[in-house]
Each structure stands twice: as structure tokens, then as C-alpha cells.
Specification:
about 110 residues; alpha+beta; 3-stranded mixed β-sheet; 4 helices; binds zinc ion
């Protein structure tokens, strides 16, 4: 996870999100989107995802239409997966946690 300097929280973890979720976080949750977690496992034996990002339902559906799942096992697929989701860059993890407390990572 990279770092971001948030105007409200200072130096925080950077969370990868699709453009729609990024917009939602910047608007403070006014649009009412619900984020879905997309995970990269880097092999079926991996118990825990190496990378993850949050996308909106529409972007999640696009990924599911191609891969049938949002649990991705292969880094090459992850690249196309990120291409499918409209790339919103990253948002401050604390801002995300305020807008979507139920998705907050420990
Ligand atoms: Zn989206
Ligand atoms: Zn913040």
C-alpha cells in the first residue's frame, strides 16, 4: 500500500479504488454506492490476498463478466482486471473508512 497526504488526515495509507468509488469518497458518500472488494491471491494456495482494491457494483460486474469472480489468482489477470475497472487512482484509507465504515480494513 502506498501513502497519500490527505488534507484532512495527513499521511495515510493509499487505497486503490475505481473512479466511481473515488468520487463517492470525495463527495462524502452522497452518491450511495456500495464498494466491493476485488482481491489478488497470486496463486490458489495463497490463504490471504496480496493486493486488493475496492470497486463499485458496475465495475465489479464487469470484472465478474470476464473472470466469473472478484477473487483473482493471477497477476496478469489482475492487470486486465484493473483495466476493466475505471481507475480512480487511490484515496485516503481514513476518508474511505469514514464513508464506508463497514468495509474498513483492520
Ligand atoms: Zn466503478
Ligand atoms: Zn483522509
Amino acid at each position: 500500500m502506498g501513502l497519500i497526504i490527505c488534507t484532512r488526515h495527513g499521511k495515510r495509507g493509499l487505497l486503490s479504488v475505481c473512479a466511481h468509488i473515488a468520487h463517492e469518497v470525495r463527495r462524502g458518500g452522497q452518491v450511495g454506492l456500495c464498494p466491493e472488494k476485488v482481491e489478488l491471491y497470486w496463486g490458489v494456495d495463497n490463504p490471504k490476498p496480496e493486493l486488493y482494491c475496492y470497486v463499485c457494483r458496475a465495475c465489479g460486474d464487469k470484472i465478474r463478466a470476464v473472470f466469473g469472480t472478484t477473487k483473482i489468482m493471477n497477476p496478469d489477470q489482475w492487470e486486465s482486471c484493473i483495466d476493466l475497472a475505471a481507475d480512480g487512482g487511490g484515496v485516503c484509507a481514513s476518508c474511505f473508512g469514514e464513508v464506508f465504515p463497514e468495509s474498513k480494513e483492520a
